[in-house]
Amino acid sequence: MSEQVETRLTPRERLTRGLTYSAVGPVDVTRGVVGLGVQSAHSTASELRRRYREGRLAREIAAAQETLAQELAAAQEVVANLPQVLQEARRSQRRGKKRVWVIAGAAVVVVAGGAVAFTVVRRSSRPEPSPRPPSVDVQPRP
């Protein structure tokens, strides 16, 4: 048994064969012309799709370039304002250091005042020694 392998003809081959053979000529010629028309339409549509995609891609690239230019301009503005921002930050840090020194000084004054008050209270709670001699011998006996 032999298998019949039917190869599909391209529209161009079909047109050529149709023009060659006269018996099946009109059918093959018609099919060949229609096939060439379909292939041509498909090729044209593919080309139009490709051009559309490239055009859309070009628009997207242009939009990305515009966005990038805006971001670059914003970054340049930030860099241009950087010295002023740093100077303001230094000023605010100086104020903060003054504030810390004032708070530290107040804390030292409060601690010193507390120490003086503690000393005064402690001394006042101890009885003062009597100017008279003691009535009992202070020396221990051997």
From TrEMBL:
It comes from Mycobacterium gastri. It is a single-pass membrane protein. Residues 123-142 are annotated as: Disordered. Keywords: Cell cycle, Cell division, Cell membrane, Cell shape, Membrane, Transmembrane, Transmembrane helix. It is found in: Cell membrane. InterPro entries: CwsA. GO terms for biological process: cell division; cell wall biogenesis; regulation of cell shape. The keyword Cell membrane applies. Pfam families: CwsA (PF10814). This is Cell wall synthesis protein CwsA.
